[in-house]
Specification:
454 residues; alpha+beta; five-stranded antiparallel sheet; four-stranded antiparallel sheet; 13 helices
Protein backbone atom coordinates (compact mmCIF):
# COMPACT_ATOMS: atom_id res chain seq x y z
CA UNK A 1 0.00 0.00 0.00
CA UNK A 2 1.42 3.42 -0.93
CA UNK A 3 1.93 5.79 2.01
CA UNK A 4 -0.38 8.29 0.37
CA UNK A 5 -3.22 5.79 0.66
CA UNK A 6 -2.68 4.99 4.33
CA UNK A 7 -5.25 6.25 6.79
CA UNK A 8 -3.16 5.94 9.95
CA UNK A 9 -0.71 8.76 9.12
CA UNK A 10 -1.02 12.00 11.05
CA UNK A 11 0.08 15.58 10.40
CA UNK A 12 2.96 17.24 12.21
CA UNK A 13 2.18 20.95 12.08
CA UNK A 14 4.74 23.70 11.52
CA UNK A 15 3.86 26.83 13.52
CA UNK A 16 5.91 29.78 12.26
CA UNK A 17 6.54 33.00 14.19
CA UNK A 18 8.21 34.94 11.38
CA UNK A 19 6.47 38.16 12.43
CA UNK A 20 7.91 38.39 15.95
CA UNK A 21 11.60 39.27 16.00
CA UNK A 22 11.97 42.62 17.79
CA UNK A 23 9.22 42.80 20.40
CA UNK A 24 8.13 40.56 23.25
CA UNK A 25 4.78 39.01 22.32
CA UNK A 26 2.36 37.34 24.69
CA UNK A 27 -1.35 36.55 24.18
CA UNK A 28 -2.30 33.32 26.00
CA UNK A 29 -5.93 33.85 25.01
CA UNK A 30 -5.08 33.73 21.32
CA UNK A 31 -2.82 30.69 21.75
CA UNK A 32 -5.50 28.87 23.76
CA UNK A 33 -8.11 29.40 21.06
CA UNK A 34 -5.65 28.40 18.36
CA UNK A 35 -4.76 25.15 20.11
CA UNK A 36 -8.39 24.23 20.72
CA UNK A 37 -9.06 24.52 16.99
CA UNK A 38 -6.30 22.15 15.88
CA UNK A 39 -7.90 18.93 14.54
CA UNK A 40 -6.50 16.57 17.14
CA UNK A 41 -7.70 13.34 15.49
CA UNK A 42 -5.41 13.83 12.48
CA UNK A 43 -2.52 15.58 14.26
CA UNK A 44 0.69 14.14 15.64
CA UNK A 45 1.82 17.41 17.20
CA UNK A 46 3.60 20.58 16.17
CA UNK A 47 6.94 22.30 16.21
CA UNK A 48 7.34 26.01 16.67
CA UNK A 49 9.87 28.54 15.42
CA UNK A 50 10.92 30.70 12.51
CA UNK A 51 12.60 30.15 9.17
CA UNK A 52 16.06 31.60 8.52
CA UNK A 53 16.27 33.38 11.88
CA UNK A 54 19.01 32.40 14.32
CA UNK A 55 17.67 31.88 17.84
CA UNK A 56 21.11 32.25 19.38
CA UNK A 57 22.41 35.22 21.33
CA UNK A 58 20.05 38.19 21.18
CA UNK A 59 21.63 40.82 18.92
CA UNK A 60 19.02 43.57 18.45
CA UNK A 61 18.90 45.21 21.87
CA UNK A 62 20.90 48.33 22.69
CA UNK A 63 22.35 49.06 26.13
CA UNK A 64 22.70 45.45 27.23
CA UNK A 65 25.52 43.78 29.10
CA UNK A 66 27.73 41.07 27.62
CA UNK A 67 27.33 38.17 27.29
CA UNK A 68 24.00 38.79 25.65
CA UNK A 69 21.07 36.63 26.71
CA UNK A 70 19.72 33.93 24.44
CA UNK A 71 16.94 35.11 22.13
CA UNK A 72 14.70 32.39 23.52
CA UNK A 73 15.29 33.91 26.96
CA UNK A 74 14.20 37.35 25.82
CA UNK A 75 11.04 35.85 24.30
CA UNK A 76 10.42 33.48 27.23
CA UNK A 77 6.76 34.44 27.63
CA UNK A 78 5.93 33.82 23.98
CA UNK A 79 7.59 30.40 24.00
CA UNK A 80 5.96 29.48 27.30
CA UNK A 81 2.49 30.35 25.97
CA UNK A 82 2.88 28.09 22.94
CA UNK A 83 4.63 25.34 24.89
CA UNK A 84 2.38 25.02 27.92
CA UNK A 85 -0.91 25.67 26.16
CA UNK A 86 0.13 23.19 23.48
CA UNK A 87 0.16 20.50 26.15
CA UNK A 88 -2.88 21.79 27.98
CA UNK A 89 -5.01 24.56 26.45
CA UNK A 90 -7.16 24.62 29.59
CA UNK A 91 -4.48 26.34 31.68
CA UNK A 92 -6.36 29.41 33.00
CA UNK A 93 -5.30 33.04 32.73
CA UNK A 94 -4.75 33.14 36.48
CA UNK A 95 -1.77 30.83 36.11
CA UNK A 96 -0.09 33.23 33.70
CA UNK A 97 -0.87 36.15 36.01
CA UNK A 98 0.83 34.29 38.86
CA UNK A 99 3.90 33.62 36.70
CA UNK A 100 4.15 37.30 35.77
CA UNK A 101 3.77 38.31 39.41
CA UNK A 102 6.60 35.98 40.39
CA UNK A 103 8.89 37.31 37.67
CA UNK A 104 8.01 40.98 38.22
CA UNK A 105 6.97 41.29 41.90
CA UNK A 106 7.00 45.10 41.78
CA UNK A 107 4.24 45.32 39.17
CA UNK A 108 0.47 44.80 39.10
CA UNK A 109 0.55 41.45 37.30
CA UNK A 110 -3.14 41.41 36.41
CA UNK A 111 -2.82 44.79 34.71
CA UNK A 112 0.34 43.69 32.95
CA UNK A 113 -1.26 40.47 31.74
CA UNK A 114 -4.24 42.31 30.28
CA UNK A 115 -2.13 45.02 28.65
CA UNK A 116 0.36 42.54 27.20
CA UNK A 117 -2.36 40.32 25.77
CA UNK A 118 -4.27 43.31 24.35
CA UNK A 119 -1.18 44.71 22.63
CA UNK A 120 -0.16 41.30 21.28
CA UNK A 121 -3.53 40.86 19.58
CA UNK A 122 -2.37 43.59 17.16
CA UNK A 123 -0.38 40.90 15.29
CA UNK A 124 -3.25 38.52 14.43
CA UNK A 125 -5.78 41.31 13.93
CA UNK A 126 -3.63 43.25 11.46
CA UNK A 127 -2.26 40.21 9.66
CA UNK A 128 -5.67 38.55 9.50
CA UNK A 129 -6.94 41.61 7.65
CA UNK A 130 -3.82 42.43 5.61
CA UNK A 131 -2.95 38.86 4.74
CA UNK A 132 0.35 37.65 3.38
CA UNK A 133 0.39 33.86 3.43
CA UNK A 134 4.18 33.50 3.19
CA UNK A 135 6.97 35.20 5.13
CA UNK A 136 8.27 37.20 2.17
CA UNK A 137 4.77 38.58 1.55
CA UNK A 138 4.35 40.42 4.85
CA UNK A 139 6.39 41.39 7.92
CA UNK A 140 4.24 43.35 10.36
CA UNK A 141 7.02 44.82 12.53
CA UNK A 142 8.17 46.88 9.54
CA UNK A 143 5.06 47.07 7.34
CA UNK A 144 6.80 45.68 4.30
CA UNK A 145 7.44 42.67 2.09
CA UNK A 146 9.46 41.96 -1.00
CA UNK A 147 9.04 44.81 -3.53
CA UNK A 148 7.19 42.68 -6.08
CA UNK A 149 4.65 41.64 -3.43
CA UNK A 150 4.15 45.20 -2.21
CA UNK A 151 4.16 46.65 -5.73
CA UNK A 152 6.43 49.45 -4.45
CA UNK A 153 10.19 50.00 -5.05
CA UNK A 154 11.09 49.56 -1.36
CA UNK A 155 8.66 46.83 -0.37
CA UNK A 156 6.77 49.23 1.90
CA UNK A 157 3.02 48.53 1.89
CA UNK A 158 1.43 51.83 1.03
CA UNK A 159 -2.23 52.77 1.26
CA UNK A 160 -2.86 51.35 -2.22
CA UNK A 161 -1.62 47.91 -1.14
CA UNK A 162 -3.93 48.06 1.85
CA UNK A 163 -6.80 48.49 -0.59
CA UNK A 164 -5.82 45.63 -2.88
CA UNK A 165 -4.55 42.98 -0.45
CA UNK A 166 -7.41 40.78 0.76
CA UNK A 167 -8.03 39.37 4.28
CA UNK A 168 -7.34 35.83 5.42
CA UNK A 169 -9.81 33.62 3.54
CA UNK A 170 -10.90 31.74 6.68
CA UNK A 171 -12.14 34.87 8.45
CA UNK A 172 -15.46 36.65 8.06
CA UNK A 173 -13.64 39.91 7.36
CA UNK A 174 -14.83 41.88 4.34
CA UNK A 175 -12.15 43.21 2.01
CA UNK A 176 -11.95 46.94 1.30
CA UNK A 177 -12.93 46.29 -2.33
CA UNK A 178 -16.04 44.29 -1.40
CA UNK A 179 -16.97 46.71 1.38
CA UNK A 180 -16.73 49.69 -0.98
CA UNK A 181 -18.91 48.04 -3.59
CA UNK A 182 -21.55 46.97 -1.05
CA UNK A 183 -21.58 50.25 0.87
CA UNK A 184 -21.95 52.48 -2.19
CA UNK A 185 -24.66 50.29 -3.67
CA UNK A 186 -26.59 50.08 -0.41
CA UNK A 187 -26.29 46.30 -0.30
CA UNK A 188 -26.24 44.31 2.92
CA UNK A 189 -22.74 43.80 4.33
CA UNK A 190 -22.22 40.38 5.93
CA UNK A 191 -19.10 40.04 8.04
CA UNK A 192 -16.62 42.25 9.83
CA UNK A 193 -16.01 45.46 7.88
CA UNK A 194 -12.59 47.12 7.48
CA UNK A 195 -13.67 50.00 9.74
CA UNK A 196 -14.75 47.52 12.42
CA UNK A 197 -11.33 45.85 12.16
CA UNK A 198 -9.67 49.25 12.66
CA UNK A 199 -11.86 49.96 15.69
CA UNK A 200 -11.02 46.56 17.17
CA UNK A 201 -7.28 47.17 16.76
CA UNK A 202 -7.56 50.62 18.34
CA UNK A 203 -9.55 49.22 21.27
CA UNK A 204 -6.87 46.63 22.02
CA UNK A 205 -4.11 49.21 21.60
CA UNK A 206 -5.80 51.68 23.94
CA UNK A 207 -6.00 49.09 26.73
CA UNK A 208 -2.25 48.59 26.51
CA UNK A 209 -1.37 52.27 26.14
CA UNK A 210 -3.52 53.28 29.10
CA UNK A 211 -1.68 50.79 31.29
CA UNK A 212 1.84 51.66 30.12
CA UNK A 213 1.15 55.39 30.59
CA UNK A 214 0.63 54.80 34.30
CA UNK A 215 3.94 53.00 34.85
CA UNK A 216 6.65 55.42 35.98
CA UNK A 217 9.69 55.29 38.18
CA UNK A 218 12.70 53.03 38.68
CA UNK A 219 12.50 49.41 37.50
CA UNK A 220 14.72 46.58 36.36
CA UNK A 221 16.05 46.34 32.79
CA UNK A 222 13.83 43.44 31.72
CA UNK A 223 10.65 44.98 33.10
CA UNK A 224 11.39 48.35 31.50
CA UNK A 225 12.09 46.72 28.14
CA UNK A 226 8.94 44.61 28.38
CA UNK A 227 6.80 47.65 29.13
CA UNK A 228 8.39 49.54 26.24
CA UNK A 229 7.72 46.55 23.96
CA UNK A 230 4.06 46.47 25.00
CA UNK A 231 3.80 50.19 24.25
CA UNK A 232 5.65 49.78 20.93
CA UNK A 233 3.33 46.99 19.76
CA UNK A 234 0.27 49.03 20.74
CA UNK A 235 1.53 52.09 18.84
CA UNK A 236 2.28 49.87 15.87
CA UNK A 237 -1.37 48.83 16.08
CA UNK A 238 -2.62 52.42 16.05
CA UNK A 239 -0.51 53.03 12.94
CA UNK A 240 -2.19 50.14 11.15
CA UNK A 241 -5.68 50.97 12.37
CA UNK A 242 -5.49 54.50 10.94
CA UNK A 243 -3.93 53.07 7.77
CA UNK A 244 -6.89 50.72 7.34
CA UNK A 245 -9.27 53.64 7.83
CA UNK A 246 -7.38 55.76 5.31
CA UNK A 247 -7.38 52.96 2.74
CA UNK A 248 -11.11 52.41 3.20
CA UNK A 249 -11.94 56.10 2.83
CA UNK A 250 -9.63 56.39 -0.19
CA UNK A 251 -11.40 53.47 -1.86
CA UNK A 252 -14.79 55.05 -1.13
CA UNK A 253 -13.61 58.34 -2.61
CA UNK A 254 -12.17 56.80 -5.76
CA UNK A 255 -15.40 54.93 -6.43
CA UNK A 256 -17.80 57.78 -5.55
CA UNK A 257 -15.77 61.00 -6.01
CA UNK A 258 -17.52 62.28 -2.90
CA UNK A 259 -15.18 64.89 -1.31
CA UNK A 260 -16.24 64.00 2.24
CA UNK A 261 -14.23 60.76 1.95
CA UNK A 262 -11.21 62.57 0.54
CA UNK A 263 -11.01 64.86 3.59
CA UNK A 264 -10.92 61.82 5.87
CA UNK A 265 -8.06 60.23 3.89
CA UNK A 266 -5.56 62.99 4.70
CA UNK A 267 -6.66 63.10 8.34
CA UNK A 268 -6.20 59.35 8.80
CA UNK A 269 -2.90 59.18 6.91
CA UNK A 270 -1.48 61.95 9.11
CA UNK A 271 -2.67 60.13 12.22
CA UNK A 272 -1.19 56.89 10.91
CA UNK A 273 2.22 58.42 10.13
CA UNK A 274 2.22 60.18 13.50
CA UNK A 275 1.63 56.88 15.29
CA UNK A 276 4.44 55.30 13.28
CA UNK A 277 6.78 58.13 14.31
CA UNK A 278 5.92 57.54 17.98
CA UNK A 279 6.40 53.80 17.55
CA UNK A 280 9.76 54.30 15.83
CA UNK A 281 10.98 56.74 18.49
CA UNK A 282 10.61 54.11 21.21
CA UNK A 283 11.77 51.22 19.03
CA UNK A 284 14.97 52.91 17.82
CA UNK A 285 15.84 53.93 21.38
CA UNK A 286 15.86 50.28 22.43
CA UNK A 287 16.87 48.37 19.31
CA UNK A 288 19.42 48.46 16.53
CA UNK A 289 17.91 49.33 13.17
CA UNK A 290 18.17 48.79 10.17
CA UNK A 291 17.92 45.02 10.30
CA UNK A 292 18.63 42.81 7.32
CA UNK A 293 16.20 39.92 6.96
CA UNK A 294 16.46 37.01 4.59
CA UNK A 295 12.86 37.28 3.44
CA UNK A 296 12.02 41.00 3.05
CA UNK A 297 15.47 42.58 2.92
CA UNK A 298 16.44 45.64 4.96
CA UNK A 299 14.00 46.75 7.64
CA UNK A 300 14.57 50.46 8.20
CA UNK A 301 12.01 52.28 10.35
CA UNK A 302 13.37 55.72 9.46
CA UNK A 303 13.00 55.07 5.72
CA UNK A 304 9.54 53.62 6.24
CA UNK A 305 8.47 56.77 8.09
CA UNK A 306 9.47 58.71 4.98
CA UNK A 307 7.26 56.39 2.92
CA UNK A 308 4.37 56.90 5.36
CA UNK A 309 4.73 60.66 4.91
CA UNK A 310 4.93 60.21 1.14
CA UNK A 311 1.60 58.37 1.34
CA UNK A 312 0.09 61.66 2.53
CA UNK A 313 1.49 63.89 -0.20
CA UNK A 314 1.06 61.30 -2.98
CA UNK A 315 -2.65 61.32 -2.23
CA UNK A 316 -2.94 65.10 -2.25
CA UNK A 317 -2.75 65.73 1.48
CA UNK A 318 -0.77 68.21 3.55
CA UNK A 319 1.69 66.78 6.07
CA UNK A 320 0.57 67.70 9.60
CA UNK A 321 1.86 65.01 11.91
CA UNK A 322 0.77 65.23 15.55
CA UNK A 323 3.40 66.07 18.17
CA UNK A 324 4.61 63.66 20.83
CA UNK A 325 3.88 64.71 24.38
CA UNK A 326 6.72 64.54 26.94
CA UNK A 327 6.79 61.22 28.79
CA UNK A 328 5.22 61.55 32.23
CA UNK A 329 7.24 61.15 35.40
CA UNK A 330 10.43 62.90 34.35
CA UNK A 331 12.22 66.15 35.13
CA UNK A 332 11.90 68.58 32.20
CA UNK A 333 14.89 70.86 31.65
CA UNK A 334 14.00 73.55 29.11
CA UNK A 335 16.50 74.24 26.35
CA UNK A 336 16.16 78.00 26.83
CA UNK A 337 17.32 77.58 30.46
CA UNK A 338 20.44 75.62 29.49
CA UNK A 339 23.95 76.90 28.86
CA UNK A 340 24.04 77.37 25.08
CA UNK A 341 26.05 78.98 22.31
CA UNK A 342 25.15 80.16 18.79
CA UNK A 343 21.41 79.75 19.38
CA UNK A 344 18.68 82.24 20.16
CA UNK A 345 15.38 81.64 21.93
CA UNK A 346 12.43 81.60 19.51
CA UNK A 347 8.70 80.99 19.84
CA UNK A 348 7.35 81.16 16.28
CA UNK A 349 6.77 77.43 15.83
CA UNK A 350 3.92 76.45 18.14
CA UNK A 351 3.75 73.34 20.29
CA UNK A 352 6.84 73.84 22.48
CA UNK A 353 6.96 73.59 26.26
CA UNK A 354 8.28 76.36 28.50
CA UNK A 355 8.78 79.81 27.01
CA UNK A 356 10.31 78.80 23.68
CA UNK A 357 12.92 76.71 21.91
CA UNK A 358 16.50 77.12 20.72
CA UNK A 359 17.17 77.99 17.08
CA UNK A 360 20.68 78.77 15.81
CA UNK A 361 21.25 81.89 13.73
CA UNK A 362 22.92 79.72 11.08
CA UNK A 363 20.99 76.49 10.28
CA UNK A 364 24.21 74.86 9.07
CA UNK A 365 26.13 75.57 12.28
CA UNK A 366 26.22 73.21 15.24
CA UNK A 367 24.83 74.62 18.47
CA UNK A 368 26.22 73.38 21.75
CA UNK A 369 23.62 73.00 24.49
CA UNK A 370 24.56 71.96 28.01
CA UNK A 371 22.25 71.17 30.92
CA UNK A 372 23.06 70.54 34.57
CA UNK A 373 20.93 67.94 36.34
CA UNK A 374 21.00 67.13 40.05
CA UNK A 375 20.26 63.40 40.44
CA UNK A 376 18.86 62.31 43.78
CA UNK A 377 20.48 58.90 43.36
CA UNK A 378 22.96 57.18 41.10
CA UNK A 379 21.67 54.78 38.47
CA UNK A 380 20.29 54.30 34.97
CA UNK A 381 18.36 57.18 33.44
CA UNK A 382 16.63 57.82 30.14
CA UNK A 383 17.36 61.14 28.45
CA UNK A 384 14.52 62.27 26.20
CA UNK A 385 15.32 65.16 23.82
CA UNK A 386 12.27 66.90 22.32
CA UNK A 387 12.72 68.76 19.02
CA UNK A 388 11.39 69.50 15.56
CA UNK A 389 13.30 69.81 12.29
CA UNK A 390 13.45 72.59 9.71
CA UNK A 391 14.58 70.09 7.09
CA UNK A 392 13.66 66.42 6.90
CA UNK A 393 16.92 64.50 7.04
CA UNK A 394 19.10 62.65 9.56
CA UNK A 395 21.38 64.64 11.86
CA UNK A 396 23.50 62.79 14.45
CA UNK A 397 24.97 64.47 17.51
CA UNK A 398 27.38 63.27 20.18
CA UNK A 399 25.90 62.90 23.67
CA UNK A 400 28.38 63.93 26.34
CA UNK A 401 27.68 63.16 30.00
CA UNK A 402 30.01 64.54 32.64
CA UNK A 403 32.64 65.29 30.02
CA UNK A 404 32.61 61.86 28.33
CA UNK A 405 30.91 60.95 25.07
CA UNK A 406 28.62 58.06 26.00
CA UNK A 407 26.39 57.76 22.93
CA UNK A 408 25.11 59.49 19.83
CA UNK A 409 21.64 60.95 19.42
CA UNK A 410 20.11 60.75 15.96
CA UNK A 411 17.75 63.61 15.16
CA UNK A 412 15.68 62.54 12.18
CA UNK A 413 12.51 62.99 10.12
CA UNK A 414 9.77 64.72 12.15
CA UNK A 415 7.32 64.80 9.25
CA UNK A 416 7.01 68.58 9.19
CA UNK A 417 8.31 71.57 11.12
CA UNK A 418 5.98 71.94 14.09
CA UNK A 419 5.63 68.22 14.73
CA UNK A 420 7.52 67.98 18.01
CA UNK A 421 9.03 64.55 18.64
CA UNK A 422 11.67 63.10 20.92
CA UNK A 423 14.65 60.77 20.84
CA UNK A 424 15.95 58.81 23.80
CA UNK A 425 19.23 57.53 25.13
CA UNK A 426 19.95 55.39 28.19
CA UNK A 427 22.81 56.67 30.38
CA UNK A 428 24.28 56.29 33.84
CA UNK A 429 24.18 59.34 36.12
CA UNK A 430 25.91 59.63 39.47
CA UNK A 431 24.30 61.08 42.56
CA UNK A 432 24.42 64.86 42.64
CA UNK A 433 25.34 67.21 39.82
CA UNK A 434 25.65 65.88 36.26
CA UNK A 435 26.27 67.71 33.01
CA UNK A 436 24.51 66.64 29.80
CA UNK A 437 25.64 68.13 26.49
CA UNK A 438 24.68 67.78 22.81
CA UNK A 439 25.69 69.72 19.71
CA UNK A 440 23.20 69.10 16.89
CA UNK A 441 23.16 70.93 13.59
CA UNK A 442 21.15 74.15 13.49
CA UNK A 443 18.25 72.62 11.56
CA UNK A 444 17.29 70.97 14.87
CA UNK A 445 14.95 73.25 16.85
CA UNK A 446 15.45 72.10 20.42
CA UNK A 447 12.59 72.23 22.93
CA UNK A 448 13.75 70.49 26.11
CA UNK A 449 15.46 67.58 27.81
CA UNK A 450 13.31 65.24 29.90
CA UNK A 451 15.26 63.15 32.43
CA UNK A 452 13.52 59.92 33.48
CA UNK A 453 14.61 57.47 36.16
CA UNK A 454 14.13 54.04 34.61
Amino acid sequence: VNDIEREDLKTLWTLRNDDVFYFRWGAPGFVREFMRNIPYDVSAGYYYGSDHYVWGREFLTKNTDAPRELDIGKHWYQWMCWGRLGYNPDIPDERFVDILQDRFPEIDARGMFTAWQSASMVYPLVTGFHWGALDFQWYIESGQSTPWTADTPSGYHDVNRFITLTPHPATDTVSIHDYTRAFLSGAQIDGTTPLQVADDILEHAEVALSWTAGIVGDMGHELRMTIDDIQSIALMGTYYAHKVRAATFLSLFRNSMDPKWYEKVSEELNASAGCFRHFAAIATANYHNPLWTNRVGHVDWRKNLAWAVYDITANGGTVRLPSLEPTAGGSILEAEDADFEVSTVKSHVEGFTGTGYLQPRDPNAHHRVKWTFNAREAGSYTLEFRYTLQQQAIYPSPLVVNGNEVARITFWHTGNTGAWVWERAAVYLHEGENTIEISPIGKVLLDHLNVLKR
